[in-house]
Amino acid sequence: MLSNIRIVLVQTFHPGNIGATARAMKTMGLSELLLVNPRAFPDDEATRMAAGATDVLENARCVSSLEEAVSDCVQVVGASARLRSLPLPHFDEPDDMAQQVIENAAQAPVALVFGRERSGLTNDEIRCCTHQVSIPANPEYGILNLSQAVQILAYEVHRAWRKRDDSHFMYQRPLEATPPSREQFVHFQEHLGRLMQQSGFLTQPHARTEEQLQALFSRAQPSRKELSLLRGLLSAFETHLPGQ
């Protein structure tokens, strides 16, 4: 689905912006980059700014017109900071745009189009689009760098995609946060109960002390590493018990 979403840059002046765009794309799982008449490409500055996303640059295609870049797309969204008096549907919020883009990308190619650094897209280029989108920003200073704009829209697209049931997206979590298995938790409870008996902490056989402590640790949801630290602490206490 994400492979059906292409980023189109029109007449980009600074090659570094092409590289930064490639980096923004790769972080959000996008890989198809089309360049309409870039001033300089390939270029060492583009490679440097890609910061490891050189595969996106190497697979980028250069074309001579926006029409050629989007001819097979079922939806073409032009990013513009200026409202145009053109009868095109306009997304005020990027997340609304992203929802529709993802739905269409499930079936066929779609494109997000970005204009020149200084002047953006011309009216004729906007007419090649099916929709417009703006990024809400400070009305007194709403100027975004080209790659920043790409990053924001690419993030919204990735966000809309990963919330789908069929994305199977796995959120990254540190290894320290891995929960213990049921077997490990039971061993900890047994170890704690044994130490409480040996230390004389449990003086009333019918008290619910063990159950209450089990409930406490269940609510705390210690990680596997944290449970291992607690087991080590219990073992250290055991060595100081009489007869040990």
Automatic annotation (TrEMBL):
Catalytic activity: uridine(32) in tRNA + S-adenosyl-L-methionine = 2'-O-methyluridine(32) in tRNA + S-adenosyl-L-homocysteine + H(+); cytidine(32) in tRNA + S-adenosyl-L-methionine = 2'-O-methylcytidine(32) in tRNA + S-adenosyl-L-homocysteine + H(+)
UniProt entry keywords in alphabetical sequence: Cytoplasm, Methyltransferase, S-adenosyl-L-methionine, Transferase, tRNA processing
Origin superkingdom: Bacteria
One GO molecular-function entry: methyltransferase activity
Segments forming domain tRNA/rRNA methyltransferase SpoU type: 5-155
E.C. number(s) listed in UniProt: 2.1.1.200
GO biological process, one term: methylation
Pfam families, per database record: SpoU_methylase
Localization annotation: Cytoplasm
Transmembrane segments annotated in the record for this chain: none
SUPFAM superfamilies registered for this protein in UniProt: alpha/beta knot
Family of this protein: Belongs to the class IV-like SAM-binding methyltransferase superfamily. RNA methyltransferase TrmH family.
PANTHER family per the UniProt record, alphabetical: TRNA (CYTIDINE_URIDINE-2'-O-)-METHYLTRANSFERASE TRMJ, TRNA/RRNA METHYLTRANSFERASE
Subunit note: Homodimer.
Protein name, per record: tRNA (cytidine/uridine-2'-O-)-methyltransferase TrmJ
